[in-house]
Specification:
The complex is a heterodimer. Chain A is an alpha/beta fold. Chain A has 16 helices and eleven strands. Chain A folds into two domains: 148 residues, Periplasmic binding protein-like II (D-Maltodextrin-Binding Protein, domain 2); 164 residues, D-Maltodextrin-Binding Protein, domain 2 (3-Layer(aba) Sandwich), CATH 3.40.190. In chain A, 46% of the residues lie in helices and 15% in strands. Chain A is globular and about 60 Å long. Chain A starts with a helix and ends in a 10-residue tail after the last helix. By secondary structure, chain B is mainly alpha-helical. The interface between A and B is large, with 54 and 54 residues. Chain B: Pfam families: BPD_transp_1, DUF3333.
Chain lengths: 360, 436
């Protein structure tokens, strides 16, 4: 027994010593982190929209491919709203440099940024995206208008609780197919675009009282026009747009809402749904004929441009890739009109900061 | 049930009711008795069959899961390459061969327009859509070939480069129709080859399915697990030892015991929120770092180790302690010479369970930002990284269809990692196991 025990004790104490040494080592690291966590950072960090994510990651990848000594940027897909919160929490190494946004920054968000010392921001429009409505290949070939969608999806169209159960309830010309829409959650920029570009349009078209309400009582306008029903007809599918595509394939009656790039990538499995008779295609979104087209932005903190190595190069790379024949377009981005591109390029070159007066 | 009761009860009951008559031996041959016996055996058989069916069902699920993963994922380790003839002499890249061996070679080649040269070579070799045939990373393969042999710069050569994702999928039998046609054409020319994708095994995340690698996430998982183990194991074992061997039994230790049991049952996302608030918020540690991930997971794993450790220590016979104390060992000697070695197999079992859970954990790591796109493997504990399960989650969310097989391949890597980790722990456990 003793012989074995002595041997075993050796092994155990060895184990214990290594473990303890490791623990102290980590303790050391922690202390270091405490001291230097907010100090410096040598890689770019970006947060925000899942729609802009594929484009920003592509630029990040190019940055590393072109210069292997550069630290790989860290890109997180958090959704525009959650990203804005992280982005506006302050300046310094602990806060992200870039916010990917699938809608414009709100005035309230800017106020938040400014209050935390991050008021100097470059606003760069990188391109356009369309929010596309799609159905399965064997779907009922819907033809919708913003008004139909508003009446089908709003929580209280015209001020009364929404009772529509099939599409025929909202428009007699539509088939008696149950209303089932899979879309993004409330924190998503895509959802904001749905509210702003489609629901508000449908609301103001169907209810003449809605338009003046936007000025006199914005909250009432919001409740009337953009609040989405919560009785299970609109299904919040999370930030996972692939999941929506899968749901559409298994349920031919459902309609999905996601960024155009997903429609483009999955055009073998799903069809676009025409809105007001216009199919979502590259051409119709680029020239703004499709009602669901919206600008995509990145926001960059000016204070970080000099502090974070490679950030300026990163922005230049973005500008070099967003042309109509560039690699970002191959990935599903819709190029902005030349005038917008020129303006964005000028913002990068001159480091022009955003004027908060233009935000709403 | 009812049928069984008389079988046991009747003789006694009759005996007490009629004390005059002697106890009648059970007649096993009567019809009623025979049918009771048959029912008994049938119940026995039913139970055995149900148990066996349960085992087969779970084995079936496991086999289905593993085989479908292997079936879908095996092709993720393989890449399709196309032989690309490229004439560097004609391309006349503005670069000195001597610079190819220096440190700045990558940058020099990128700025010398190597990517364009590769694209035009593809167009020359495969027609005007040739550029679209190649993976976005094809030029990187060419770059590495050039760095390995700078003499190529003045020659014509043929380099096998990876093909674009749709073509790759078509070559594996599941691509869009237009890519199938391209593959048929290339196959006829005999330029397609297949091979183990070193890219997948050695690089990190990418936006292109043909360029993704698992190494970044693997290394992230490894670093995170090291931090978790180094923290959770010693602290967990020491807590268990103290609570079991030294702590007085009073209200405070009862409270601690209840808290530890509760902690072990807390959903993992709560630990993520805790990590976010404490490690990132209060201590200002870097976001997305394996260090923070490891700390968070250590909090989650520790209670499991403490509970398993206490049970194992409790199971060590008191006679061993008494004997050691009796021959003059100090309490610390008793613990380290006798109790801990005997309890170690049990402690290691708890550690295996805790670590396996930590390895597969996603939710708390999402909260502390370990779900970012990072195109390079982490080089230290404080570098941003992601871990295998989060990488799987991220890839399953990708637009491009080529990611499906890569997701399955990543799952295979995760399972292999898990098996390897458990294998080591089981080896250690058996090494220390004692029977008495």
């Amino acid at each position: 027994m003793t012989g074995i025990d002595v041997q075993r004790f050796g092994a155990i104490s060895g184990l214990a010593v290594t473990a303890l040494a490791g623990a102290t080592l980590i303790g050391g690291c922690v202390d270091q982190a405490n001291g230097g966590g907010a100090g410096s950072r040598d890689q770019i960090t970006a947060v925000g929209s899942s729609t802009v994510y594929p484009f920003t990651t592509m630029i990040a990848e190019q940055l590393v491919a072109n210069d292997p000594d550069a630290k790989a940027p860290v890109i997180e897909s958090t959704g525009t709203g959650a990203g804005m919160k992280l982005f506006c929490a302050g300046i310094g190494a602990g806060h992200p440099d870039i916010e990917d946004a699938s809608r414009r920054m709100k005035a309230s968000e800017y106020k938040d940024c400014a209050a935390n010392g991050a008021g100097q921001i470059l606003e760069i429009q990188v391109g356009i995206d369309g929010i596309a409505f799609a159905e399965a290949k064997n779907g009922p070939k819907m033809q919708l208008t913003p008004t139909d969608l508003y009446k089908a999806l709003a929580a209280s169209p015209g001020g009364r609780p929404n009772t529509a159960r099939v599409w025929r309830d909202v428009n007699p010309a539509l088939p008696p197919v149950p209303i089932q829409v899979y879309g993004p959650p409330a924190t998503s920029g895509t959802r904001d675009a749905l509210a702003e570009l489609i629901l508000t349009k449908g609301c103001e078209a169907s209810d003449p009282a809605a338009k003046p309400l936007a000025k006199s009582d914005p909250d009432a306008h919001k409740a009337l026009c953009t609040r989405v029903r919560e009785d299970g007809m609109y299904v919040d599918a999370g930030e996972n747009d692939n999941l929506i595509v899968q749901k559409l394939q298994s349920n031919p009656n459902a309609i999905g809402v996601f960024g155009y790039s997903y429609l483009e990538e999955n055009k073998n499995d799903v069809n676009g749904v025409a809105i007001s008779g216009v199919q979502p295609t590259y051409a119709t979104i680029a020239d703004n004929r499709y009602p669901g087209s919206r600008p995509l932005y990145i926001y960059v903190k000016k204070a970080h441009l000099s502090a974070i190595p490679g950030l300026r190069t990163f922005l230049k790379l973005y500008a070099a890739n967003w042309s109509a024949t560039g690699p970002l377009v191959k990935r599903g981005l819709i190029a902005a009109p030349p005038a917008v591109q020129a303006r964005s390029a000028a913002i990068i070159a001159n480091e022009t900061i955003l004027d908060p007066a233009v935000l709403s | 049930m009812n049928s069984v009761t008389p079988f046991i009860g009747t003789p006694d009951a009759t005996a007490s009711a009629k004390p005059a008559t002697a106890r009648v031996p059970t007649d096993w041959t009567t019809k009623a008795m025979q049918s009771r016996i048959r029912r008994r055996y049938a119940a026995e058989r039913r139970f055995r069959l149900a148990g066996l069916a349960a085992v087969w069902l779970s084995a079936g699920f496991l086999a289905f899961l593993l085989s479908s993963m292997l079936w879908q994922g095996a092709s993720g380790f393989v890449e399709t390459r196309v032989a690309l003839p490229i004439d560097f002499a004609a391309a006349a890249l503005p670069i000195e061969p001597a610079r190819l061996t220096s440190r700045g070679a990558d940058l020099a080649l990128a700025s010398a327009g190597l990517e364009g040269a590769v694209d035009s070579a593809a167009t020359r070799a495969f027609g005007k859509d040739g550029e679209g045939l190649l993976s976005d990373g094809a030029w990187v393969t060419v770059r590495d070939a050039l760095k390995a042999d700078p003499g190529l710069l003045s020659r014509k050569t043929v380099i096998a480069v990876p093909v674009a994702s749709p073509v790759d999928m078509a070559a594996k039998g599941d691509g869009p129709p237009e890519a199938e046609a391209v593959v048929a054409r290339l196959k006829a020319r005999g330029v397609l080859t297949r091979g183990l994708s070193m890219t997948f095994l050695t690089t990190a995340d990418s936006t292109d399915a043909t360029r993704v690698g698992i190494w970044g996430a693997f290394k992230g998982s490894l670093l995170t697990m090291i931090v978790t183990l180094l923290l959770a194991f010693p602290i967990g074992v020491l807590s268990a030892l103290y609570l079991e061997e030294y702590a007085p039994k009073n209200r405070w230790t009862d409270l601690i015991e209840v808290s530890i049991n509760n902690l072990a049952a807390v959903p993992s996302i709560i630990f993520g929120l805790l990590g976010l608030a404490v490690f990132l918020g209060t201590f200002g540690m870097p976001r997305s770092a394996p260090l923070v991930g490891g700390l968070t997971l250590a909090l989650m794993t520790m209670p499991v180790i403490v509970i398993a450790g206490r049970n194992a220590i409790k199971a060590v016979p008191p006679s061993i302690r008494d004997a050691a104390l009796g021959i003059g060992a100090s309490p610390v000697q008793v613990v380290f010479h006798h109790v801990l070695p005997l309890a170690l197999p049990g402690i290691l079992t708890g550690t295996i369970i805790g670590m396996a859970r930590a390895l597969g954990e996603t939710a708390p790591l999402l909260m502390i930002g370990m779900r970012a796109f990072i195109a390079a493997p982490p080089s230290g504990l404080r570098d941003p990284a992601t871990v295998l399960p989060v990488q799987i989650f991220l890839w399953s969310d990708q637009v491009s269809r080529g990611f499906i097989e890569k997701t399955s391949a990543a799952i295979i890597v995760l399972l292999v990692f898990l098996l390897a980790m458990n294998g080591v722990a089981i080896y250690l456990r058996n090494k220390f196991e004692t029977r008495w």
